[in-house]
Amino acid sequence: MFAVIGLVIGIVVGIAVEPTVPSVLQPYLPIAVVAALDALFGGLRAYLDGVFDDRVFVVSFVFNVLIAALLVFLGDQLGVGAQMTTAVVVVLGIRIFSNAASIRRHVFKA
Amino acid sequence: MRQVRHRDRAAADATSADGPAGAASTEPAAVEPTSAGARLRHLLFRRHPSWVHVLIVLLCVAVGFALAVQVRQTQEDTYATMRQDDLIRLLDELSVRNRELTEEGVELRRELSELESGSSSRAAAQEAAEQQARVQGILAGALPVVGPGIELVVHDPSAQVSAPTFVTVLEELRNAGAEAIELGGQRVTASTWLGTRSGGLLVNGVEISPPYTWRAIGDPQTLAVALDIPGGALASIRGAGAAAEVRQLDRVEITSVRELEQPEWATPVPADGS
Fold first, then answer.
1. Given an 8 Å threshold on Cβ–Cβ distance, is B39 in contact with A50?
2. Does residue A78 sit at the B interface (CB-CB below 8 Å)?
3. Is residue B266 predicted with pLDDT exceeding 90?
4. pLDDT tens digit string along B185-201?
């Protein structure tokens, strides 16, 4: 419950404050957001599966975000930034879908 | 190991929340839900925050914040998230398009100035033509005119004055710079002819009778003096036995006009003279 409220608060604050993303972070923010979403879905699924662990969630959340950003950074340095971004987004998208399917089975029993 | 930790924490939460020993709090299964639906409800309504939960909430706040910021950023600035190659391609396209539009603008501006000069020269030509038509109309006697001039009344009850005498008067008036002349209500122009008939005169074939009235527009002083010179026009009129009276006027109105006829025989010589 608090997590959902926190999400909403974050969105509201983000809309209200209208901050400018530093240009250094600009290529990595979207990937980080997608990775964080993936971690959120994974956490929800783990919770519904009964295997949720706070510590694991926090660590995996931070780690996923960092890894995703690092991959894109590496891709940029190697000159394959666009492709790397696509690859990371595809992988995270697949994970989000499978997690969402698992959550759906739990919630709707279908 | 994870399961164990879960149970421990759940038990600890339960005891801390419920205080001294309820029956439910000693049984972990009652607090830790087993089905997914129960877990979901438990997730939404449980009340046992710890520092990890605070951290999770903070992470969620951060995710929401980043999400909103990124969405806003993407909406307000499309180019910020684009790659360098795409930006270069876009820049190339833009510069090509810009060059095309600039050329088109130059072309259109040139056309506009051509049209403007054309219309202004046409307007000037039209004004010149109107001016010309005015001058020609006055000279050819096609327009009613008004201006300072003289009025010469010739009292000749016995019709003694002949056409040649009046031709002399006409020549004197023209000599003195008369710009428009009228005799007996007939406009006198370059093609006017005078004839003698019994009891009067003919002007352009129209019979006129005494007293004859000349009206001429020009410098009144000059015209009067020119008519009055010794041995001149007035002298010959008086010599013919008629009485003449000249009045200098500030305003002489000549309303009679002549119809202009198309020249039947004469055509202009071509301008190049060949």
1. yes
2. no
3. no
4. 888 888 888 888 887 88
For Cα atoms B148, B149, B150, give the angle at the middle one, nearest 5 degrees.
Answer: 145
**Contact call for A58 and B43, based on CB within 8 A:** no
Q: What is the pLDDT of residue B102?
A: 96
pLDDT bracket for residue A84 (50, 70, 90): confident
Distance from CA of A20 to the nearest CA of B (A): 8
* CA pair distance B126, B65, nearest whole angstrom: 73
Residue B267 amino acid letter: T
Which long-range contacts link A70-78 to residues 24+ away (Cβ below 8 Å)? A71/A31, A72/A27, A72/A28, A72/A31, A73/A27, A73/A28, A76/A27
| A4 at B interface, C-beta within 8 A | yes
- Sorting pLDDT into bands at 50, 70 and 90, what band is B40? low
Domains of chain A by residue range: 24-108
Please indicate if any CB of chain B lies within 8 Å of the CB of A53: yes
Instruction: Please name the member of A10, A49, A53 whose beta carbon is closest to the beta carbon of B68.
Output: A10
User: B126 with B166: CB under 8 angstroms?
Assistant: no
Tokens of B45: 């309504």
Tokens of B89: 């391609």
- Classified by CATH at the fold level, domain B145-254 comes out as Alpha-Beta Plaits (3.30.70)
Domain ranges for chain B:
2-73, 82-140, 145-254
Contact between A58 and B55 under an 8 Å Cβ cutoff? The reply is yes
| Contacts B46 to A, Cβ<8 Å | 1
Q: Which residues contact B177 (CB under 8 A, 6 or more apart)?
A: B218, B219, B222, B223
Whether the predicted interface score ipTM is above 0.90: no
pLDDT at residue B44, rounded to an integer: 59
Tell me: the pLDDT tens digits for B9-22? Answer: 443 343 333 333 33
Mutate to test the interface with B, among A11, A49, A52, A58 (most CBs of B within 10 A): A11
What does pTM read for this prediction? 0.42
Instruction: Please give the DSSP secondary-structure letter assigned to residue B54.
Output: H
Size of interface A-B (CB pairs under 8 A): 125
How many other C-beta atoms are found inside a 10 Å radius of the C-beta of residue B94?
10
